[in-house]
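Risk register update: the risk of archive-format incompatibility is retired. Evidence:
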Amino acid sequence: MPGQSTLMILPLLMTSVFLLTGCPPAPDLTQWKRPDTDIDGVRVAMGKCGVQLPGPDIPKTDNESVLYYQCMENMGFTRKDGFNICSVRVYHDTPACRTQEQGNPLSQSQLEALPFVADRGFHPIKPDSGVSNSSLITWRKAGASQHFSHEIENDQQALAVMYQCGYPQPLGSVPYVPTLRKAADVQQCMLDKGFEPKYKLSLVCRNYPQVTACPKT
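Archived output:
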């Protein structure tokens, strides 16, 4: 009865990993498979692709997540659940997925024409969605207190400057997101005015430092 044995083995495996590491295994650890490769082999491969286990859960950009999946696939792994990351809309327009789709690297103009979705400040709000404009405020004055008691004041200050720099006015009113190049210009305006993003991964230049508007180090 293969089905029953699998159901018995997986909980035991998860329990063993929990006892050894003090935390449950990452879902990916049990989802990748390759002939003649055990779970330790999966862990080693994940480390080579940038995911160390055990180790801290380091946030990735959308493109970095795709590159991780592609790295595992290039080493001969497939997913037990059949998940195809590039079939998910939020990942489909990443350079890694587009490059795989067209079979060669994107040109600079192709890269900069891709839509940028990591900054919620550019997201459209669907009618009757219940999403408030204030939830799309993604900046605060650099060095401002992050205590919740200052949140309204910080948001009011940031919103005015977001409008000055080119975010949709009001937030959520434009039914599409900007290109990487356009978003980079708007975000650079915010940085120049002394603001910082609430979430570092929302910066174009953190995601794609090769964009023309990004400072070169």
